[in-house]
Amino acid sequence: VLSRSDVLRSTLDAVSELLNSASGRPATSDLTVLVQTRETGMAISRALKQEGLKVRDTFDRDQRAERKRKLAFFKGDACIKITTLHSYKGWESPVLIVVLERLGDPTQLAEGYVALTRIRRSPTGSFLRVICADPVATRYGASWPRPRSRAAGSE
Questions:
Q1: Which long-range contacts (CB under 8 A, 24 or more apart) does 3-11 make?
Q2: pLDDT greater than 50 at residue 154
Q3: pTM reported for the whole predicted model
């Protein structure tokens, strides 16, 4: 079971890996982090900003201000985007990091599925990283094949 700090560290590591990838760095405007809760999203946003990265999120403690932030949240902006799964309905991105903390009931499982469908194919390649803190998914995740590195896979 991952703690909130483990989830935060795993997310920061995934962003860093993407931005420092030797095999083709994605456009920062394509990188989107989807979270289940506002609290997790705000923590990730703060941490990325502390790392000196440009971030746009949809979070605000005031509901009116949050609505305005959602209107200003668009895909072409040259920064990392962070929002909840609910706020990203109908949108897609070729570079997604999905943070799932709870999958204990059918609604949460459905949210996880919907988040996974937000990936968009891109001629330059797509990237999906799922960070899951719920032990219910551990056995399922362990059954997935591990990705090969580009260097190991090139022949």
A1: 3/133, 4/40, 4/43, 4/101, 4/133, 6/133, 7/40, 7/99, 7/101, 7/131, 7/133, 8/40, 8/43, 8/44, 8/47, 10/131, 11/44, 11/47, 11/97, 11/99, 11/131
A2: no
A3: 0.84
